[in-house]
Amino acid sequence: MGDDQFQAALNANLLTSVRLVREAVPHLRAQGWGRICLITSSSIKQPIPTLALSNAARTGLWAWAKTAAADIFGDGITLNLACPGSHATDRMKAISVPTGPMGDPADFGRVVAFLCSEPAKFVSGSTVVVDGARTVGLS
Question: Which of 14, 49, 50, 65 would you call most buried, defined as having the most Cβ atoms within 10 angstroms of its Cβ?
Answer without folding.
Answer: 65
